[in-house]
Amino acid sequence: MKPQGRQLRAVYQHLHRHYGEQHWWPAQSGFEVMVGAVLTQNTAWTHVEKAIINLKAVNSLDAESIVLAQHRHLAAWLRPSGYFNVKAQRLRSLCRFVLDSGGVEALSAMPTPSLRADLLAVKGVGPETADDILLYAFERPVFVIDAYTRRLFSRLGMVSGEEGYEELRLWFESSLGADVALYNEYHALIVVQAKDVCKKRPLCESCVLQKRCAYYSDGK
DNA sequence: ACCCAGGGTCATA
DNA sequence: TATGACCATGGG
Hints:
The chain is mainly alpha-helical. The chain has 13 helices and no strands. The protein has one domain (1-8, 23-145, 160-196): Endonuclease III, domain 1 (Orthogonal Bundle). Helix 1 (3-19) crosses helix 11 (165-176), helix 1 packs across helix 12 and helix 8 (112-120) crosses helix 9 (127-137). It binds a DNA duplex through helix 2, helix 3, helix 6, helix 9 and helix 12.
């Protein structure tokens, strides 16, 4: 393991002890993970759940139904998750990709690099959404980078925060080694940690690692 | 009333 | 390559 690996695992252990097992991704199928990954873009998960409940209520949580649904219907079902016009389009393009590829089962047989490239080629699927899908739907060892990840490790002084997405992702992956279960839990813990804020003082390293204070916002 | 959520695309310079 | 505008609901 690389030098940063030990430090990264120490942070993980701290978060895991403090917040416990997260059991992500909350979904009943790989396809549901894919849908949730698009719907949660810049949106609170509680709102996404309502949209997914709507889709289930009309028996349309599958690629065929979503592709065939009229835009106004799909948009109405997605309304609670925000950006409903945009997300209806993105969901359609993702579902068309799934169908054109022969379904989720066929996708799960693809090697990770080509699957990742194909996901990124879908309109509305960017790096984070693609990596959510790769890790949580297809159980591939891909470390998900989000704004929380960049902010936390920047404040811990382990990265500058100015790195590009790919650079940061490869840094985590090479430091930790390929480990699906670890990546799964780690990303979940980073997200949970970010929500756990106090208003007392700006973040310092002990804030994160010793939980004296959990004010992780940007102090603006 | 303001801020921001488990981002991404597109137009501009 | 790098900003800025835009998408839109709902909870704190």
